[in-house]
Amino acid sequence: MCVVLCIVVCVFAGGSGQLLSTLSPELPASVSLAPSPGHGSDVHLRSGASGEPLAISQLRSSAQRQNLIPSTQQQAIPSAAREVFKAVEQGLATGTIEPFSDLLAGRVFVQLRGAEGGYHTSTQAYYILTSFLKSRKPLSVVLTTYGSTDGVPYATGGATFVSRGMREDLQVYIALHPSGERWVISHLNIY
Predict the structure, then answer these.
(1) Rounded to an integer, what distance in angstroms lies between the CA atom of residue 46 and that of residue 51?
(2) Where does the pLDDT of residue 23 fall: very low under 50, low under 70, confident under 90, or very high at 90 and above?
(3) Are 174 and 147 in contact (CB under 8 A)?
(4) Contact 56, 117 (CB under 8 A)
(5) What stretches of the chain adopt beta strand conformation (E)?
(6) What are phi and psi of 130, to 5 degrees?
(7) 57 shares a domain with 82
(8) 5 domain residue, yes or no
(9) Computed from CA positions of residues 164, 165, 168, 172, in that sequence, does the dihedral angle turn out positive or negative?
(10) Edge-to-edge order in the sheet of strand 137-149
(11) How far apart are CA 136 and CA 138, in angstroms?
């Protein structure tokens, strides 16, 4: 049995409490919305039984979490840039850099968990990322947020790997910049 949970989302303008938008407000009896103490208009989901905060991951299946990308944000990104993000996501999910190795900029900033970040040539970045991925088995990689700052597309999300028998939950950040007629990876952080 599949249960779909709709969440109320309220946006307040300038602390005046004016309600700007609300999405479908149907919560099961065991889940409630509670104001976040000391945080103005922030609202948190709480379990009705225990009053404990709930994370979105507790409310959705992994298939549902993968569809949390607001379409307006994804549409704001050029299709060529979306293809680069898709290639990185696929490569990380399969544990190989091959799907996006030719998309690394000539000089790329790489920051990995447990290592100091820095700028590297595309060849150096290739070997650094290959070594990082060789020591880990990917369980999931999902880019959840897409955006653009000053015309520069970026994507963020999460990744779960197994390294030395231990599960690692990591954050992923990718930024692009134009190179001629295409987008290339200028920043890749996995931390």
Answers:
(1) 5
(2) very low
(3) no
(4) no
(5) 12-13, 18-19, 31-35, 43-47, 104-112, 118-121, 137-149, 152-163, 166-179, 182-190
(6) -60, -45
(7) no
(8) no
(9) positive
(10) 118-121, 104-112, 182-190, 166-179, 152-163, 137-149
(11) 6
Query: pLDDT tens digit string along 31-48?
Result: 444 444 444 433 344 444
Angle ∠(7,60,72) on CA atoms, nearest 5: 60
Q: Which structural domain range is residue 22 located in?
A: 12-61
Number of domains in the chain: 2
Indicate the Cα dihedral angle 178, 182, 187, 191, nearest 10°: 150
Token pair listed for 27: 């919560």
User: Using CA atoms, how far apart are residues 96 and 117, in angstroms rounded to an integer?
Assistant: 20
pLDDT on residue 179: 96
Residues 75 and 55 in one domain: no
Residue 82 identity: R
